[in-house]
Amino acid sequence: MAIDGSFGALVVSLSIIVGVAVFGIIAYLCTRIYNMPEDTFGKDINDFLDNMEREKPIRFTSKQLKTATENFSNVLGSGAFGTVYKGTFKNGLTVAVKVLYGTLNRRIEEQFMAEVSTMGRTHHLNLIRLYGFCFESTLRALVYEFMDNGSLDNYLFKTNEGDSIGFEKLHEIAMGTASGITYLHEECPQRIVHYDIKPGNILLDSKFCAKVADFGLAKLCNRENTHISMTGGRGTPGYAAPELWMPLPVTYKCDVYSFGMLLFEIIGRRRNMDVTLGDSQQWFPIWAWNKYEKKQLKDLMVACEIEENDQEVVDRMLKVALCCVQYRPETRPDMSIVVKMLEGTFEVPEPLNPFSHLFIGVSEPSDSLARMAWNGGGSDWTSSETIMSSKVVTGTPLMHKYEITIASV
Fold first, then answer.
1. Residue 198 annotated as binding?
2. Which regions of the chain are under pLDDT 70?
3. For residue range 38-48, what is the model confidence (pLDDT) as tens digits?
4. Element spanning 67, H or E
5. What are the φ and ψ backbone dihedral angles of 240, each rounded to 5 degrees?
6. What class has domain 150-355?
7. Which CATH class is domain 66-145?
8. Catalytic annotation present for 299
9. Domain ranges across the chain
């Protein structure tokens, strides 16, 4: 019995020793896993969880944004809805903070909700990223990633030669912009219509990668809905599709039209409307069409200072622009087709004259409004007619009601 008792005690002792050893090994392994180098699995999981959390827009306080922007002292730019300031957080992240104008009314609320709801659910290389927002009685602001090279209009319309961009890079910017709009129209769970595509809303990062920005006018709609209900004029004159300014059905193709107008300004590296030029060149899109129709593209190349090695890509961009600005929305291509045409994987069809309707004559007030939307002009309109149209623009009640300004101002 004594032997059996000793044997039992030995077994118990060995079991305790083995258990302690196993526990020690497990504890050691857990410690090693927890303290793995940055390129190991444990750290990757932590980073992944942190990144997932950051995907949600952060709600900032007014105090945080005042500190980051040094009390809103560094102005980057301003627009119809607000002023944008540069800011830097304590972790070194540089941001652009857009402070919205106005008191807390329905229009400001709608613009704010449109921006946050749209940008908070979209993630694409060619769309600006929304980090967060502030919504307090004293401050309504949106916090975006900072774009080192500002907006595209600074490079298209500045006279400083050092700020110009070559056509190879401009083509990439056009491609990136088209890809971003394609994502909004065709790849989001709900189709998103931007309504205000223009150079000022195309931002450029440190590598001049294009990012579509400013979704304050955006409207989400179900894909099943082919038409969109409108409560008033949207967009910027000179870029807005005719259906946005007339009693016509509105579809997502209004963004295609605006992109076409943007392409014209990229090709000409000038504003589409320039009253300082002769009558025939005041409105660039129709002058470009006349040169295309008469097969006088050499004149366009010379006027726009386009080098011979860029001719092929510019010819393609011009044809795509003419396809995009067709008067009837259903004759405009989808943006995914536009991307393929720009990259050369889809042959660009011969465009029809997109401006023939402008010369039928003005018989209704809505026709005058359409002229205003395109900033009028062209070889078949006299200077006096153009000036008269301009006077109508500045005095239109619709313009005052929605605080719309001419793009070239």
1. no
2. 1-55, 80, 102-105, 107-108, 159-163, 216-217, 219-234, 360-409
3. 454 455 555 54
4. helix 62-68
5. -70, 140
6. mainly alpha
7. alpha beta
8. no
9. 66-145, 150-355
